[in-house]
# Entry
Amino acid sequence: MKKALQLVLALLMSVSLFSCTKENVNENIETQKAFEAFLDEQFEEYLTSDFLNYHYSIVDPTSYGLTKPQVTLGHLSTQSILDDIESTKEDLQELKSIQINELNQEQQRIYKILEREFNEMIEQEQYLNFYFLFGESKVNDNLVTNFTEYRLQNEEDLEDYIILLNDVERYLNEGIERTKEMAQAGFIQKESEKKAILEQCESFISGSEIQLHVKDALANMELDDATKKDYEKRVDQAVNESVIPAYKALIDLYYELPKADNQGSYFEQEGGRDYFAYLIKTKIGSEKSIDTWIKECEDVLEETIQDWIHVMITNPNIDEELNSIQMPSDNAKDMVKALEESIYKEYPVIDEVIYSVDYLDASVATDLVAAYYVIPPIDMPNQNVIKVNPNYSDTTDLFSTLAHEGFPGHLYQNNYR
# Structure
């Protein structure tokens, strides 16, 4: 959980911060150099303090002079989370030692982004009992994605991959212990959330997506058949002796957890209102109060109702027209292409984006996810991938999801310059 600095990485990899910025009478070249050195430290720490960050963010780390970190999945214990927060406090203190008014405009913008990010990381210390590790798009889901999207190009990658597979049991056990601590403190997830976790875990262990991923990667490597078979055997052993037992232990945990006393909203839980306000602030990036957001939502809802009333009065055939809308295709690749070709009427044109649209294996495709975008390594920006759930039959919903993940969504956003 060390620093969610992905939003800053692109800034750190951009052209010199000293160019194309308006001069400030207070600018100090030494302060600006100190700030760049701080950014370099943050960039290196982000990549080398976590092996998965290191692997996924950079294809050729040697070109950046980075030292390979220990091959491990990291930690999920309460203490590890607290340690990360303490480290972030130190980073914030170092940042504040730099005089922001002596930086150029671009540096000041990055400074403010970092300051906000650090403060939000530190503030979450107050809400750790709301921070559930398992659930939709959380550790149990993300771990599967990490293993099925893992870049396997050579034997070193394979050796690291097997080490990570064998680390799953230790890693998830830390998360299981933390979940038990939270349950003892009275913080237990809703029954609907438990059910979704159980379904995801049971579906995953019944499949063989990890082994299929390795087999596909080995087919593209220049290794002899005996070596390939040995790697397949070692991966299969790691899955059976570490991964599957770990997910079975997680299943046992969620069958054993008692029903929570409070199955209502955050507003009905002690400290829940403050946590909800924190979520709004961090997810939306706004300091507006909850009451202000409620009023704005009510206003938009009222305006939308009035607009629909007007449409229905002026066009009595609107229901038939909506039901007759045809998607450009029922194929995800064609949908993304159609979206790409249509958005530039309203969005800025960007350079050609290289991407692929692939379907997930059924064993890791849950009903909760229609599609997702995989951010490419920063030194291989053309490796954009959208993964699609092959079981998703609602083409209208899939089309809107692909717009969110592709164009003009995350893929477009990540490639906008």
